[in-house]
Amino acid sequence: xxxxxxxxxxxxxxxxxxxxxxxxxxSEIGGGTVEAKExxxxxxxxxxxxxxxxxxxxxATNGVKVVYSYLVRTxxxxxxxxxxxxSKTASNDFVLNIPVDSLRKHDLKTVSGLKIMVKQGxxxxxxxxxxxxxxxxALPQFSAFPATITADLTGGTTAISGNIKSEFGIKQVDxxxxxxxxxxxxxxxxxxxxxNVKEYALNYAYTYRKAAQHIKIKATDIYNQSHxxxxxxxxxxxxxxxKFENFAASITPNTTGTTPVSGRITSVTGLKxVDxxxxxxxxxxxxxxxxxxNGIKTYNYSTAxxxxxxxxxxxxxxxxxxxxxxxxxxxxxxxxQSTLYRDVEMNAQTLATKTAFLNNGSTIGNCELNANEAxxxxxxxxxxxxxxxxxPATAATGSIASNLxxxxxxxxxxxxxxxxxxxxxxxxxxxxxGQSNIYDLLEANEIDDLSNAFFTANxxxxxxxxxxxFDTSVAATTSIFNKTTARVVFIKITDPATGLIKNAIxxxxxxxxxxxxxxxxxxxxxxxxx
Length: 530
Prior knowledge:
By secondary structure, this protein is mainly beta. It is built from 5 helices and 32 strands. The chain has helices at about 1-25, 100-105, 390-395, 435-445, 450-455; strands at about 30-35, 40, 45-50, 55-60, 65-75, 75-85, 95-100, 110-120, 125-135, 140-145, 155-180, 185-190, 195-205, 215-220, 225-230, 245, 260-280, 285-290, 295-305, 315-320, 325-330, 340-345, 355-360, 365, 375-385, 385-390, 420-425, 470, 480, 490-495, 500-510, 520-530.
């Protein structure tokens, strides 16, 4: 009898569970429902195909108090992406909205959906699941296109043909060439109105544009995904470009006046303009233009070039009426007495990647100090008082060495006898005629001679500081610099191995006090005597 009662009891429980499951669409503890929809996230459009948010209607028997939304992905723990507090109203009906921005910042490749957990007014819970599928549409694909085509250079057309396929539909095909500059593509034509076909047979009649060497085809699908194909088009483009004749192979500039630059430029299409540049500022800078040439095919070019210190080359660019360019570089025969390294950037010991400046103009970090001890010219670091330029010879045995850490170990020099001894003297604009003269020469880009005689003529004393400090809160001194009136630092570098001494000038362009102080940075130009 007892056995029969147990069987009846279990059957009753089972019937209760079955009835409960039929009553609600999702598994739950509290009463209610969470509307379950299916969403598709499109990787190409970076949003859902149905819109920019996930929505779900929630009905809770005991009122919606808090709604938690968890992102569910295969192989990754569930991630809370939204928690909404509805306790003020605790209404039984609630519309859940989750913007796509809350989801697409996470990796959705393995997403399966959103787990929704609802805390009701009586602290019971209700659960639901919203399915999300990840859709990664394939790019358009090319087939049957040639790797190389032979261009018609006589004015006729060149056939470009092949097949383009897209599983989802092709919206547009663009044709480019590189007629102005090789590998810089310019649109030649766009084919639209393709009606989103899944397979498109391209048969395009291309009219050659002079100096082009490649064709690029770009296919765009309905999701604005693009795929490109490059076709080679071997052409001897020199036949189209302007040509330079009778120009000097090199020029010795007149340093006190102008220097004539002349030659003949020819063009099969005719010239539009000729530009002249030099590299006095480290990169080529436009100095003048001869324009309004009205398509002349033979042009006798002549200009008067004004030399400026630090220039090493002249560049002439001739442009024809179809914007095809040719350039000529002419070296200047001028020997500089110093080497200029521009825009050197260094950081202090905590950043640790550019703490030392070497004799070849490069910078190294803490972990490279030992391997470059014989090449060190200066070290940049920071102490509690501010950023500092250090003499590497004294820094190697000073307190800063322990802070120049590599893998948490301070710098211990392996051979102090090879480390250069660098002394510093800050020059202050207005402090003396000689110091102001050096500032003026820097402004005029005329610094070159760094001999002892140059500094003696300007009454500049020999450097003696081992560690000048950057400080804008106090008056500048021979060992305190800033980036305005005390931005120039005269240094003297002694090589202990050879006894050779070189003079140099640092022109500080920027210096930033870091937080922490070891994150300080500096930027400067440095002129070093040859």
